[in-house]
Amino acid sequence: MSESDDLALQTLLALRAEIAPNVDEALLRACYAVQRRHQFSSDRAQSSVAMEKLIDEAVDASTKGVAS
């Protein structure tokens, strides 16, 4: 956590450490960034598509790491 993180992200990261320490911090930060970027968009599909893509990439990367 850095001083430049906003309060919502700081809280999310603190909860991650308590509840789900195995969740990749970089993935959590990327998900937060997607949600923040699309928070005022009237098209909710933009956020959903971006999150799905991000999570699919993370799952693909983790399964490739396991398969090696």
Structure description:
By secondary structure, this protein is mostly helical. The protein has a domain at 25-68. It is built from 3 helices and no strands. α1 runs antiparallel to α2 and α2 runs antiparallel to α3 (44-67). It is flat. 1% of the residues are buried.
What attributes characterize this protein structure?
single chain, 68 residues, mainly alpha, 3 helices, 0% strand, flat
Largest beta-sheet details:
none
User: What's the tally of helices?
Assistant: 3
Q: Radius of gyration over alpha carbons?
A: 14 Å
- Write down the overall geometry: flat
Our measurement of the CA-to-CA distance between the termini, rounded to an integer number of angstroms, reads 31 Å
Please count the beta strands (DSSP E, at least 2 residues each): 0
Classify the secondary structure makeup into a structural class.
Answer: mainly alpha
Mean pLDDT: 88
Q: Are there runs of 5+ residues with pLDDT below 50, and where?
A: none
Order of helices and strands: HHH
Question: Strand portion, in percent?
Answer: under 5%
Considering DSSP H and I runs of 4 or more, what fraction of the residues is helical?
over 70%
Write the SSE topology.
Layout: H1 7-19, H2 25-38, H3 44-67
Helix pairs in contact: 1-2, 2-3
Question: What is this entry, summarized?
Answer:
By secondary structure, the protein is mostly helical. The chain has a domain at 25-68.
